[in-house]
Amino acid sequence: MREDQSLTFKMKKRMKKYVSLLLAIFIFLFSSCDTEGDSIDVGYYSYSISFFYPENISNNYEFAFNGEKGSSGYVFRNNSNGLLEVYEKDNSTLVFSKQISLADDSSIQLIKLGDDIVIYSKDDYISFIPTVIYSGNSSDYSIWFNDQELENATTNYLSKQNLTGTFQIKKSGVSSPIYSQEITIADGEKVNFMQLSDTEVLNIPEDDEPEPTDQHIAKARFFYTSDVLNTDEIRMDFYRFDENSWDWASELSVVSSVTLKKGELSEYVELNYLSDGAYISYMCDITDLKTGTKITDYMSDYIYVGAPNKPSDDGTLAIFKKVTYQILNGGKEFTVMDGLTTRW
């Protein structure tokens, strides 16, 4: 009986020790909380570390805070200052190091532009989307702004201190860029290019032209390259006529004109095919603005504007809402650029 009492006494004594220990831990962890809103002296902060941009490169790096490796962790609130380090996983090379101070639930986002890695701050950067349509295998090419390689057809970021510079398209194995242009990039801008050959690239400005709301109307724009017309600037004049009534000899009146510079897109020209009882078509001619010489003449060359553009028997409906034509064969032919064209 005494042995049982002694065992019970020992168990009770141990239980008191355990309760005291748990109570001490509880007090330590929560002594900083105060219902009156006093400042917190004891506790911890959580943190996480990742790359904001470019996407999916966090796995290429290893992070550490005050020597503690990992992409997340905890630190005591009264010891929240420390050294953030970033290492390349492949060779353990230190690529970033900075003293920082953590706050509650700190989410540390890094941004890598070119070879530079810094902590991302929304106020210091802009975003934009560069898109290049390649004529060849896209894997053979890369796009650059100054010394920063860009990702094609997706969101990229630039420092606000680096918005003016040289935009380049490079081909693997070729020392000189196939395209180079000085530009200034704005926040949210879409910068678009189309490669026409290994030596010529078309700059495509952001298209804010409204689409027509009537299927009797198409909007057309044009461009040419130096291998097609060896002149810096041309004018296209457009002539509207009824194929059922025009005698093909009387001169027509110019209904619209547009000026083109070599390698640049023209403004849009509206082609309206609706007319009671008429079968409307358009022809055009081209004039070299420098010399005033007609390169093509609608009265002798009979050049229709673009490809056949009327799917209906009465000729009143348009195929395209907005269409971009490349001028070919010395100004006598046109081809539709599908990537820059929308259909009804």
Description:
The chain has about 350 residues and is mainly beta. The chain has three domains: about 45-120, Sandwich (Immunoglobulin-like), CATH 2.60.40; about 125-205, Immunoglobulin-like (Sandwich), CATH 2.60.40; about 215-344, Immunoglobulin-like, CATH 2.60.40. Helices cover about 10% and strands about 45% of the residues. The protein is built from two helices and 25 strands. The strands form six sheets. Strands 17, 20, 23, 24 and 25 form a five-stranded mixed sheet that branches. Strands 4-1-7-8 form a four-stranded mixed sheet, with no helix packed on it. The termini are far apart. The model is unreliable at about 5-10, about 20-25 and about 30-35 (pLDDT under 50).
Give a topology summary.
Blueprint: H1 2-30, E1 44-53, E2 61-65, E3 68-69, E4 72-76, E5 81-88, E6 94-101, E7 106-113, E8 116-119, E9 125-133, E10 141-145, E11 148-150, E12 156-159, E13 164-171, E14 179-184, E15 190-195, E16 201-204, E17 217-223, E18 233-242, E19 254-261, E20 269-272, E21 280-288, E22 294-296, H2 298-301, E23 320-328, E24 333-336, E25 342-343
Parallel strand pairs: 1-7, 9-15, 17-23
Antiparallel strand pairs: 1-4, 2-3, 2-5, 5-6, 7-8, 9-12, 10-11, 10-13, 13-14, 15-16, 17-20, 18-19, 18-21, 21-22, 23-24, 23-25
